[in-house]
Amino acid sequence: MLPGAAFRGSMSVMSETVQKISKRIEELQGAARKARLEAMQLAAKLLTTSNAELAGAPTNAHREGELTALRVRYEGLVKIAEEAQTQIDRLQAEEHERKYYR
Length: 102
Prior knowledge:
Blueprint: H1 3-54, H2 61-101
Helix pairs in contact: 1-2
Protein backbone atom coordinates (compact mmCIF):
# COMPACT_ATOMS: atom_id res chain seq x y z
CA MET A 1 0.00 0.00 0.00
CA LEU A 2 1.30 3.46 -0.82
CA PRO A 3 1.98 5.81 2.12
CA GLY A 4 -0.50 8.36 0.78
CA ALA A 5 -3.27 5.76 0.63
CA ALA A 6 -2.59 4.70 4.22
CA PHE A 7 -2.72 8.34 5.31
CA ARG A 8 -6.05 8.90 3.54
CA GLY A 9 -7.46 5.77 5.18
CA SER A 10 -6.44 6.90 8.65
CA MET A 11 -7.87 10.37 7.96
CA SER A 12 -11.18 8.77 7.03
CA VAL A 13 -11.28 6.81 10.30
CA MET A 14 -10.39 9.95 12.28
CA SER A 15 -13.09 11.88 10.44
CA GLU A 16 -15.68 9.24 11.35
CA THR A 17 -14.55 9.34 14.99
CA VAL A 18 -14.80 13.13 15.06
CA GLN A 19 -18.28 12.90 13.53
CA LYS A 20 -19.35 10.40 16.22
CA ILE A 21 -17.98 12.66 18.93
CA SER A 22 -19.77 15.66 17.41
CA LYS A 23 -23.04 13.76 17.29
CA ARG A 24 -22.68 12.70 20.93
CA ILE A 25 -21.95 16.31 21.91
CA GLU A 26 -25.14 17.43 20.16
CA GLU A 27 -27.15 14.74 21.97
CA LEU A 28 -25.72 15.76 25.34
CA GLN A 29 -26.33 19.43 24.64
CA GLY A 30 -29.97 18.65 23.90
CA ALA A 31 -30.34 16.66 27.10
CA ALA A 32 -28.64 19.38 29.15
CA ARG A 33 -30.82 22.07 27.54
CA LYS A 34 -33.96 20.09 28.34
CA ALA A 35 -32.88 19.54 31.96
CA ARG A 36 -32.00 23.23 32.40
CA LEU A 37 -35.31 24.35 30.94
CA GLU A 38 -37.31 22.09 33.25
CA ALA A 39 -35.16 23.19 36.20
CA MET A 40 -35.88 26.85 35.41
CA GLN A 41 -39.60 26.11 35.22
CA LEU A 42 -39.48 24.34 38.58
CA ALA A 43 -37.45 27.17 40.10
CA ALA A 44 -40.09 29.64 38.96
CA LYS A 45 -42.85 27.52 40.47
CA LEU A 46 -40.91 27.16 43.73
CA LEU A 47 -40.28 30.91 43.92
CA THR A 48 -43.90 31.73 43.19
CA THR A 49 -45.12 29.34 45.85
CA SER A 50 -42.55 30.55 48.40
CA ASN A 51 -43.50 34.16 47.73
CA ALA A 52 -47.17 33.31 48.22
CA GLU A 53 -46.34 31.67 51.55
CA LEU A 54 -44.30 34.68 52.66
CA ALA A 55 -47.21 36.93 51.70
CA GLY A 56 -49.39 35.01 54.14
CA ALA A 57 -51.25 32.64 51.87
CA PRO A 58 -52.39 29.58 53.83
CA THR A 59 -50.43 26.37 53.34
CA ASN A 60 -51.08 22.80 54.28
CA ALA A 61 -49.07 19.60 54.69
CA HIS A 62 -50.02 18.43 51.18
CA ARG A 63 -48.46 21.56 49.71
CA GLU A 64 -45.30 21.07 51.79
CA GLY A 65 -44.95 17.55 50.39
CA GLU A 66 -45.40 18.91 46.89
CA LEU A 67 -42.78 21.59 47.47
CA THR A 68 -40.34 19.04 48.82
CA ALA A 69 -40.87 16.87 45.75
CA LEU A 70 -40.33 19.89 43.48
CA ARG A 71 -37.09 20.79 45.29
CA VAL A 72 -35.80 17.24 44.98
CA ARG A 73 -36.70 17.15 41.28
CA TYR A 74 -35.01 20.54 40.78
CA GLU A 75 -31.81 19.33 42.46
CA GLY A 76 -31.86 16.19 40.31
CA LEU A 77 -32.23 18.22 37.12
CA VAL A 78 -29.39 20.53 38.10
CA LYS A 79 -27.18 17.49 38.71
CA ILE A 80 -28.15 15.99 35.33
CA ALA A 81 -27.32 19.27 33.58
CA GLU A 82 -23.97 19.57 35.39
CA GLU A 83 -22.99 15.99 34.57
CA ALA A 84 -23.98 16.45 30.92
CA GLN A 85 -21.91 19.65 30.76
CA THR A 86 -18.92 17.81 32.21
CA GLN A 87 -19.24 15.14 29.51
CA ILE A 88 -19.69 17.81 26.83
CA ASP A 89 -16.52 19.58 27.96
CA ARG A 90 -14.56 16.32 27.92
CA LEU A 91 -15.85 15.37 24.47
CA GLN A 92 -15.18 18.82 23.05
CA ALA A 93 -11.59 18.60 24.27
CA GLU A 94 -11.26 15.15 22.69
CA GLU A 95 -12.85 16.38 19.47
CA HIS A 96 -10.46 19.33 19.32
CA GLU A 97 -7.47 17.09 19.96
CA ARG A 98 -8.50 14.65 17.22
CA LYS A 99 -9.17 17.42 14.70
CA TYR A 100 -6.02 19.41 15.22
CA TYR A 101 -3.35 17.27 16.87
CA ARG A 102 -3.63 13.75 15.46
